[in-house]
Amino acid sequence: MARLSVIGREQVLKHDFEVQEIFTEIEDAFGKIPNLFKTYAHFPPLLKANWSKVKAVMMQGSLSRKVKESIALLVSKDNSCAYCVAAHTAALRTIGTTDKELGMIESEIEKSKFTEKERELITFVRKANKDPNKITDEEFEELRKGGASDSEIVEALGVMELFTAFNKFLDSLNVEIDF
Question: CA-to-CA distance for 177 and 33, rounded, in angstroms?
Answer without folding.
Answer: 12
